[in-house]
């Protein structure tokens, strides 16, 4: 039974993880409509950077009017309106979306782990870089992503305020083959953008680079780690489960046509 269906979701924990998540992955434009956060980023397709996030279960006032206002803002950015449903979303809003034919099209599990209980190597196999340009190039190569994202990704990483560690594993003949971003926000460490090159998987590189990132964060005073993973990514969920990560809550994306 997951945290969502067990009806035991810890709302203060959700609020805190949402807050550190916003700081770890900052949108270019953030506006508030009541307690709804409207996030938009013209140059990057990340759903977390382009969505409306209601943050108070009781804030349902004039929902239809506010959604239409948000839709026009998204339209100006050339994007469809996306609503991100966390346990903080007003239930009447979600019922309204469902009743009007909106569809959930992606679900994400937010996991956390106690860094004191994770077995990590005594030494760091990989040291963090602070060279954003180098990390962006490495990350795009590992993920085989479109190079057109480079300026926007560099802007996002440059906007992260908490201390960040940029980790890359390189092969002498192949270049970058694994990468991960770790954002240390006081006692919480956020793991972002973990990727292993398609040709290098099932070699333990994911655990290797993640262990270095977590050890770096623990040495800096982080006590817990968190990350987000799409619920259909069984390989990633198995990897994180081995390290002791457990689900805190889930969130879901909604759109009118069931896609981003």
TrEMBL record:
Listed Pfam families: Rv0428c_C (PF24553)
Keywords, comma-separated and alphabetical: Acyltransferase, Transferase
The UniProt record lists the keyword Acyltransferase: yes
Domain N-acetyltransferase: 122-260
Top-level taxon in the UniProt lineage: Bacteria
InterPro entries for this protein: Acyl_CoA_acyltransferase, Bact_Acetyltransf, GNAT_dom, Rv0428c-like_C
MF (Gene Ontology): acyltransferase activity, transferring groups other than amino-acyl groups
Protein name according to UniProt: GNAT family N-acetyltransferase
